[in-house]
Design goal:
The structure holds 3 protein chains of 3 kinds. Helix content of chain A is 75%, strand content 0%. Chain A is mainly alpha-helical. In chain A, helix 5 packs across helix 7. Chain A is globular and about 65 Å long. The relative contact order of chain A is 0.13. In chain B, 42% of the residues are buried. In chain B, strand 6, helix 4 and strand 7 form a beta-alpha-beta unit. In chain B, the strands form 8 sheets. Chain B has an 8-stranded mixed sheet, with helices on both faces. A 3-stranded antiparallel sheet of chain B has the order 14-18-17, with helices on one face. Chain B has 12 helices and 23 strands. In chain C, 62% of the residues are buried. Chain C has 3 domains: 153 residues, no CATH class; 282 residues, no CATH class; 105 residues, no CATH class. In chain C, the strands form 2 sheets. Chain C has a 4-stranded antiparallel sheet with strand order 2-1-7-6. In chain C, strands 4-3-5 form a 3-stranded antiparallel sheet. Classes of the chains: A mainly alpha, B alpha/beta, C mainly alpha. The interface between A and B is large, with 39 and 32 residues.
Amino acid sequence: MSLYTFFGCLFTAYGPLLSIFFLYIARDAQLVLLMVCRYAEIQDLLYNRIAVFNVDIFFLRSAFFWLIAMLLSSVIWFAAKPIQNMNTVTILYSVIIQELFRWGLFKLINRAERGLMIVSKNPKSLFNRSVFAFVSGYGFGLTSALISYISTLVQSIGPGVMMCPSCPQATLFFISAITTSLASLQHILWMMLAFEAYHTLPSTIGIIQGIWVIISHLGVSYATLMNSMESLYLGCVYAMIVQLVVLAISTSLVISNLKKHYGEAMFSRNSQ
Amino acid sequence: MCRSNLQSMEATKHLGGVIVVVNSSTPGYPSRPQSYSPESTCPNCEYGLYASDSEQYVWNPNGNGMIYESFDYPIFALNPIDSGSTTAYNQVMKDVQYNSQQNYQNYPLRAVDFSLFMWSAVNSETCLRRGWCQPVGGSSVYSTASQNMTSTDGKPIIVVSATMDSRSIFHDLTLGVENDVSGMVALLAVADALSKSPTPLDTFPKHIIYTNFDGESWGFAGSQRFVDDISTPFVCQNTTTGQNFCPLQGACNNPCVRDTDFTKINFDNIEAVVEFSSVAQSNASGAGFWAHTDDATTSNNLLLSLINTSSQNNTQQQYHIQAASSDGVNRKLPPSSAMSFLKKKRSIASVVIADYQKSLDSYYHSDFDDTIDLASASSAICNVASSTARTLWLAAQGISNGTAPPTVIADCNLVNSLLTCLTYNYSCPLIQQYYTVNNAARVSHYSSVFSFGGNSLLSLFVFNFLGDKNGVTRLNGTSPATCQSIKDCQSNEYCIRRSCVKTFTRYHDAYGTGLEFDHTTGLYTVIDASQPTWSESTWDPTVMRVYTTTSVQHQVVELVIGILWLLSSIGVVWYLRKYLRKTLKVA
Amino acid sequence: MLEHVVGDRNVHDGDTWQNKNSTTAPQLCISSGSTFISNTDRKDLHLFEIMTTALSSTQDEIELQNSDPVPPGDSQCNVCQKPAAFMCSSCGLNGPRYCSTECQSQGWREGHYRLCQGNAQARANAASRASNNTPEPAAAAAQGSIPMVEIRNNETSTEQDEQQEFADELRFYIKQIYLVIQPVVICIILSIFWVKVAFSGTSDYTPVRPSYSIGTSPTTTSGGSDSSSSSAISSLTTALVIVGQIILVTLVIVFLFRRGWIKILIGFFMIVVVGLLGFMSYLLILNLIEVFYIPLDYPTMIFALWNFAVVGLISVFWKSPLWLQQAYLTIMSSLMAFSLTGLEQWTTWMLLGLLAIWDLIAVLCPFGPLRLLIESSRTQQREVPALLYSVNAVWFMASMENHFRISQSFLPKEDHEIGTNWIYQDTGQPTTDAGTSQAQAVTTVETVRSNSPQPLGNNERDRVWNDESGPQGAVIEGHQARDGFTRLRGESVNTFATGQEQNVTTLSAATPNPNRSSHASASAGESETVPADEEDAERSGLKLGLGDFVFYSVLIARAAMYDWITTVCCTVAVLMGLTATIFLLVLWKKALPALPISIAFGIMFYFVAKAVLVPYVGTVCVFGMVAL
């Protein structure tokens, strides 16, 4: 029954995203919605007509940004006909455009955040920036997972399968599902790292994290090329390993960031 | 494909479908069986002349009756006759080979699925009532050179007949070269030969009518209906009020007919029927032709005349016509259209000319009946046509001793091209003379479904050919009046070979006589279940596709991994949330 | 149309009471409200309404009206009907008014105790803040003593308070947006599902609209042929014809409404609803049966369909639980969108484009029919019968009386309206409430209460909010308001002051094109018998016109017919456009059309995705198995 494959791939690819959505974002939607502005800044911002845009559902906005990035890179891909089949070049400019939009998203949120005083639960909590980053990253990850995997997923309902070129024992659907799932998690982490990096940009840690985001994104994308290389036996396993390693490093970086914030928060709380 | 094989496969309970490979006898393919006939042992005997006899002669002892069976699984046929089917065949064979290399166990393996939805339900009556079936049939063609024939002119009629259609398990592959095409070609050759008679045919004391019946494989539908129509007085009850579903703007809408010219044929005047059964001598090794009769006494004169003429005209023994009962066994008539005439009036003289004496051909009504040795077949047909034509020329004038003029002879080149055109290449030059044909090579000889006003490709050609041979071209001055379509001609003329021709050539509806069209509902109803009531189901496009598939265990493993991943991610997120809430008070 | 209807908001925080005898409105109260809004006359009570109305098509306007708290001079004692100078401190402006402690005690006994539960800290704070005239709480208060505070002006407005107000405002907006997006998403998902089923290739019942092809429509150009070159023209003409129908029907409805012939409108809408629920559901069921090989017999299907349609009619036009109404409206929108998917591709796109333009014109231009409709409904103080999807309540006809009576019982005879959900209306008042609806409301209130232990701190209130996420979101706020909580520093309470009825307008612009869904609801005829102030009860919260649902769904369904990737793109685009529109609404505080931005995004994304993104993803992500 090919429905087994369909549900297996569905849960594998979208499992983390779904669980995050239903356990976190949907239930605490107000979390991302609860922005309370300081009055004066509101007035100032209103005249600039920017403030209001902060008060929306963040992950929709980041989804929108990712989509635009994808559309741009696909326009370029479409226009550059001779190199359409060279996935290496395609990956290069696609990733660069995505990173540009990530930076643009940061700029936008930052501009609004400047006017926003986070008062909701934790006054002046420094964690809220992480929360924004998390949700924005979730938007990126969700849209990326949807757009890149949904056609494959729909195909898996039918009785036929395609085998992964580099791991002939596994189906293409399933390997793609794993890749998508890991990539979506990475998008979340990258966004958190990137926001942190851009925020503290002149500092070395910021630069390191920023560079890490770009390099690891490129690395992961190039590594997944191994999935489809027929000549490389078990290429899909190598790609998965690379993804997991990058995931682990990113997670540790993010945790260290959070700990830093935690320390500051404790400090500020203790000092009150 | 025989019953025992299928049954043993069914017994394994793992049979999903069957792909049958039907191929020509070219080298490299598995060879064909010597004889294979899926028909029953006595084809159409329940509708024939001897249906009520206690013992009927078994004409098809090789028959295994598969054609009447129904199966619970799809059966598809692959016959690599053109590029498309060859590609499909190659792909399937490659996949079969791949699977056998993997011992049918090492997944991923190649799989195939079939899609062939048929709408039919229960039986003909129910299916026709619901509108999901259509009656099997087509258009018969009859033609005569006697343009002024009326039903009251008292002239006897000689009917020359052949079958237009054939039958096999896979209707798209039906050719029936030996079975019906040979007879049809012989008929057309006779018409051509007689048209070269120095004395015009309409001056003969007897009429000669050429009839080419469609739907004969399905209980003699065409000939039965024709005989019924010309033997019962036709009463037209034109319905002007209320709804009438007759799609023809013809002579009469209740009953729904194209024209009423068949009333000019008086059944009582028919005195003889000469029919061509299979006459290609494809597997007869020089054994000659056999003339079958029902009752030797009534048909004696005709029979003797045929025998004499053929022996006079032919030096070669293999083309001599002999009486089929010359070995003392009276087998009576083989399944043929002549039976329909005799059912109504047993005293009609009837002769069925065939190249078999004791049993039907080995590939009777089978998909294998698609090859022919063009040279030998055309010469056989040519000869028998000549003999018959010359016999008829004498018989139609009532001359018992004599010789037909030398012009009355079949044109062997014509026979050759007819054979090619009607089997392998419908776009041949001969047919192009009559009308333009594009992209039609091998035309199926399955009669398909009946529709009012619809003509199959074969009917169309026979109509044009006979209309040309039996027609009078109108002259415009000294040159023939040209036309591009029938609209350019006068009302009783047809545009044949691009000139306006006046001819008594007509189509006639052919579908089971057990069915009748109800003009008030537009549906067919069963009026007599003892007569043929064959109908064909409406079907959705049939698709067969091959693909790679993985084993069920593999899929279950994927599902389990997915569920585990989902559950673990739910757990992780939940835990993280709690933790972050408690310690960092951030979530 | 996107219109924000917030009932009557009490835009002051806990520290500002209005002295009813004072004629000057507190500066603060108004300012925080009017900061957002505009410089309206403070004497007028404007209702802060975000209401999305719009029958069917393009009537998407965003109207925003300002609301100021009621001048204090209008208070009457709840018990003795004399002019009241005090009110329950916990309940604030939304609470009952009393002229004396005796009245307060009596009022407490009579039922206010159920609604006003003291919060000891709140009391203490209120006592400390209310520096004068805090009489002894009535001894009879079983649940503790609630101080009464004088209704007076409080001129001091701290930044914190303003901020709180603002925060409440924003939070309310966001909540409403969130609640609005849910049904939109559900409708979109339903439409995608119908489209996938009907156009899967195995169904014979795909909806096909008779298109006004060249030669048959009077508006087509002569000499058109069936060649592909003129298919664009035929699509355009078809789209123009359909838009023309919409415009025509809009004008008819405006005309009918202005003339006051509401019953004709209602009858017409009922016919449309029945037709939609009956016929389109039938078509849909046929599709489902055919695609999924469901063996279903006619009697069962007719029985089910009949019930479905009749229940839908009742729930939309009469009364029913809110969730049922919302469900039916969502389903009807998706059915309408499903029927529109029968149009040809280019016809659909042109239709959407023309509708966006029409929406702009009709809403923004001074002579636009929708604007006229809104104004006339305002001047007539009558509801435009229309179908609105309301987050909090759905307009429906006559039987609102019972519900509204509850609210009226709570209020003195004038303008203080509770601009929140009817459900929550306080039921403790032993007034002329009808039994059943009251009981219903009681149970609802009780349930609500049990979820929200008092006092609520910040967290708890939010939790309450979470638990009651959904249409009753606003309930809680009102409920809290009546619970005797005073607003503390740091706490934000969204209480709504009532406003004058005449400024309460429900907007709905109806454009019932017979081919479109427009569900009409509340009859103006019926509502004439209902005192206007009761209608406010339902005004709060977001109301979305069903035309928005329908055309969003049409766009996405059309995208779904091509590929899943375009579906996702267009969904994101449309939702993005919707949120952008809502925020423009907040910014500009005037009627804005909701269709143009979403449709512009949607169309652009569809064509770019179809041409470029789909092959790109196919090459890179599907076959290349690259993670991007």
